[in-house]
Amino acid sequence: MSESRIAKRYATPLLQLADKKKSVDLVKSDMEKFLAVCHGNAAFVNMLNSPVIPHLKKGEILAKIFKGNVSEISSALFRLIIIKNREKLLPQIAREYINAFNESQGYQSANVTTAVALTPTLRTSVEELVMKISGKKPLLTAQVKKNIVGGYILTMDDSQIDQSVKGALNKLKLIFDQESN
């Protein structure tokens, strides 16, 4: 079974339990804290992935780092994952929980890449486009990559809309290459 399916199998009941205990926002905050530690500390992620460090030692490390900083539900998840010896999946489980939370709340995550920073007006336009396409409230992240020259690349789930100058040039090059053969 793929790791993403396993992560979803933990994230879905976690969301259900958090919903039952009226703690979905609290657990989401915990998962965001956990991911912030993962993104800010490569040694922490290496520790989770290490086959050399015993999984019970990893549990002690997790308990020390997050004791008093996360809810009892999240602490119980960490203990369960350690017992099952699947601690390397924790970052993916946290991401899947956040995705499931966003979906349950009617949000659509989207990423837009542009050559220059988005102005508030352009950001609103992109958010409206996301809402029109998905029918959900957008959670938009923006990044700047000068190599796309102009336009934008919008990514939502498994779909991508490439309206960049670089994308248009690549399409044109492909057409010329096909016609010359």
The residue ranges in which pLDDT falls below 50 over 5 or more consecutive positions are none
Number of structurally distinct domains: 2
Class from helix and strand fractions: alpha+beta
Quickly give the CATH architecture of the largest domain: Orthogonal Bundle
Please report the total strand number as a whole number: 4
Beta-strand share of residues: 5-15%
How many strands, which pairing sense, and closed or not: the largest β-sheet?
Answer: 4 strands, mixed
Q: Mind telling me the CATH class of the largest domain?
A: Mainly Alpha
Taking strands numbered 1, 2, ... along the chain, how are they ordered across the largest sheet? 2-1-3-4
CATH topology-level fold name of the largest domain: Peroxidase, domain 1
Q: Count up the helices.
A: 8
SSE pattern: HHHHHHEHEEEH
Shape: elongated
Summarize the structure.
The protein is α+β, with helices and mostly antiparallel strands and 181 residues long. It has helices spanning 3-20, 24-40, 42-49, 55-66, 72-83, 90-104, 120-134, 165-180, and strands spanning 107-114, 137-144, 152-156, 159-162. The chain has 2 domains: 3-103, Peroxidase, domain 1 (Orthogonal Bundle), CATH 1.10.520; 108-180, no CATH class.
Please tag this protein with its features.
181 residues; alpha+beta; Peroxidase, domain 1; 2 domains; four-stranded mixed β-sheet; 8 helices; 4 strands; 14% strand; elongated
